Amino acid sequence: MSELSGFVDIRVEPMDAILCVTLDRKEARNAYSVEMIESLMRALDWAESEDAIRCVVLTGAGQAFSAGGDLKQMREHGGMFEGDAVRLRSQYLRGIHQVPRRLLRFDKPIIAALNGAAIGAGLDLACMCDVRIASSAAKCGSTFVKLGLIPGDGGAYVLGRTVGFPRALEMILSGRIIEAQEALQIGLVHEVVDPERLMNRCFERAEALCALPPLALRLAKAACYQSWDLTAEQALVLAASYQGIAQNTADHDEGVDAMLEKRAPRFQGR
């Protein structure tokens, strides 16, 4: 693997086939900074380019997953919140919008470990991941309207695709914060565990994904995300193309052999 260094406001730790990324601005409840966004983009680029990495686990340091926007910078109209409407539009497009653009085309599985509050853009970040596992102490909310804002980082897009349009609309319009169990009931998270079990459970889920054929996993994820906005006919053509690739891999042959021979498969990523 190539060297990992120089990250700001995040911690990056390879763990065999898993890359653990921790948002690390505890003093700001892991709210975004310009440096955090740049570091997160570099970490994801690295993870995607390294064949040895098959899954990413994303979490937050301290008591929060992410508070989203930095309220102190908002109050001062500084940093990424500086400027008139035209300048702010440009800053969003070139700044925080890098996050949804990158995550929505990231082709390896990402598990969000919601260790605490996922609020505003922090909730949206969790929705950009593929699997969400929450601590029972976690809370979630699309609270933009309470600050006189809209979900400006892509939340209006990803939240509806996570919980369905009616629930997403209610959450966005009310700005209410929900507990972990309600998040589970509405499908916002896939699982809720005790706080002390969170990271172990996320690594268990990640290891299970890492044991699967990596190319098939990446193609399956791409097919799901890309098919969302296609017609049925377009989605079928895409499926035929990806299946043609998958069916010509050694891992496909190994999977068939293992199933017929009633043994555990030995996938090698080719």
Could you explain the architecture of this structure?
The protein is an alpha/beta fold and 270 residues long. It has two domains: 201 residues, 2-enoyl-CoA Hydratase, Chain A, domain 1, CATH 3.90.226; 48 residues, Lyase 2-enoyl-coa Hydratase, Chain  A, domain 2. 46% of the residues lie in helices and 16% in strands. It is built from twelve helices and ten strands. It has a six-stranded mixed beta sheet, with helices on both faces. Helix 1 links the parallel strand 2 and strand 3.
Topology, pairings included?
Elements: E1 10-15, E2 18-23, H1 34-49, E3 55-60, E4 64-66, H2 71-76, H3 85-94, H4 98-104, E5 110-114, E6 117-119, H5 121-127, E7 131-135, E8 139-141, H6 155-163, H7 165-174, E9 177-179, H8 180-185, E10 191-193, H9 198-210, H10 214-227, H11 232-246, H12 250-261
Helix pairs in contact: 1-4, 5-6, 6-7, 10-11
Quick recap:
This protein is α/β, with parallel strands linked by helices.
Identify the notable features of this structure and list them briefly.
2-enoyl-CoA Hydratase, Chain A, domain 1; 12 helices; Lyase 2-enoyl-coa Hydratase, Chain  A, domain 2; six-stranded mixed β-sheet; alpha/beta; 2 domains; 270 residues
Structure summary, number of beta strands: 10
Structural class of the secondary elements? alpha/beta
Uncertain residue segments: none
Gross geometry: globular
Helical residue percent band: 40-55%
CATH architecture of the largest domain: Alpha-Beta Complex
Distance between the termini: 18 Å
Supply the number of helical segments.
12
